[in-house]
């Protein structure tokens, strides 16, 4: 999808859905963005943020599985795919204090083997701030650390999927929750959805690859 004249080119970003099970019910960690944020203030989201060039140099303990690399797309270089996964883990640690991997001498060393790539979304062309976000999911057993906020996300809590839908006011978040719940139900793989806007109308298209 090409950019229209004078539109902002979307920057790469990554988010991480952390899922746990309590009394037979899945819960997902979400937090509310600060009212001071320029992008989606006062909105409940998953931990995440934009990719930083330094993410390319972060040493990882375990690599992203080959299947997840394939699902990120053949046109995406493996180095860039790895940066997206690292960004999701790094941003999660910065915003929540939770570690997907380990810390050694103050350095975060991500475990990427437990990440599942579930969706991507592109901010509408008319937005002054745009992201091409990839959404990953992982389970509680891959997480260590104590939940705490650095101020970027507030009111962090574990929510059932019904509660998460009530809290989430953005249609992209709603669709990502749908995809996560579909995956958790272990239903047949149907591709990775691209969530985007065309003429102001949200769309969800599946690309079937990397089965």
Give the secondary structure arrangement, pairings included.
Elements: E1 11-22, E2 25-33, E3 44-45, E4 48-50, H1 66-72, H2 78-96, E5 101-104, E6 107-110, E7 116-122, E8 131-139, E9 153-160, H3 161-167, H4 171-184, E10 192-198, E11 201-207
Parallel strand pairs: 1-8, 7-10
Antiparallel strand pairs: 1-2, 1-4, 2-3, 2-9, 5-6, 7-8, 10-11
Number of helices: 4
Question: In total, how many domains does the architecture comprise?
Answer: 1
CATH class: Alpha Beta
Per DSSP E runs of 2 or more residues, the count of β-strands stands at 11
Radius of gyration: 16 Å
Cα end-to-end separation: 24 Å
Shape call:
globular
Structural category: alpha+beta
Poorly predicted regions: none
The CATH architecture is Alpha-Beta Complex
How much of the polypeptide forms β-strand, as a percent range? 25-35%
Helix amount: 10-25%
The average pLDDT value, as a whole number, equals 91
Q: Tell me about the largest β-sheet.
A: 9 strands, mixed
CATH superfamily: Nucleoside Triphosphate Pyrophosphohydrolase
CATH topology: Nucleoside Triphosphate Pyrophosphohydrolase
What's the SSE pattern? Answer: EEEEHHEEEEEHHEE
Structure description:
The protein has one domain (11-34, 45-207): Alpha-Beta Complex (Nucleoside Triphosphate Pyrophosphohydrolase). The longest helix is centred in the middle third of the chain and has 19 residues, at 78-96. It starts with 10 loop residues before the first strand and ends with a strand. The relative contact order is 0.22. It is 22% helix and 34% strand. The chain has helices spanning 66-72, 78-96, 161-167, 171-184; strands at residues 11-22, 25-33, 44-45, 48-50, 101-104, 107-110, 116-122, 131-139, 153-160, 192-198, 201-207. The chain is of the alpha+beta class and 211 residues long.
């Amino acid at each position: 999808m090409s950019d229209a004249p004078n539109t902002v080119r979307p920057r790469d970003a990554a988010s991480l859905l952390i899922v746990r099970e309590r009394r037979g019910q899945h819960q997902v960690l979400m937090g509310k963005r600060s009212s001071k944020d320029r992008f989606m203030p006062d909105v409940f989201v998953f931990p995440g943020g934009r990719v930083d060039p330094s993410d390319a140099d972060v040493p990882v303990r375990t690599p992203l599985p080959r299947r997840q690399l394939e699902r990120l797309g053949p046109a995406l270089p493996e180095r860039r795919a790895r940066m997206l996964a690292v960004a999701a883990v790094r941003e999660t640690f910065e915003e929540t204090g939770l570690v997907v991997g380990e810390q050694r001498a103050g350095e975060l060393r991500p475990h990427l083997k437990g990440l599942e790539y579930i969706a991507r979304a592109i901010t509408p062309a008319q937005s002054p701030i745009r992201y091409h976000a990839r959404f990953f999911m992982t389970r509680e057993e891959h997480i260590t650390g104590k939940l705490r906020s650095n101020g970027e996300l507030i009111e962090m809590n574990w929510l059932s999927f019904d509660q998460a839908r009530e809290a989430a006011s953005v249609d992209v978040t709603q669709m990502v929750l749908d995809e996560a719940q579909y995956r958790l139900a272990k239903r047949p793989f149907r591709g990775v959805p691209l969530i985007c806007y065309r003429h102001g109308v949200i769309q969800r298209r599946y690309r079937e690859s990397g089965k």
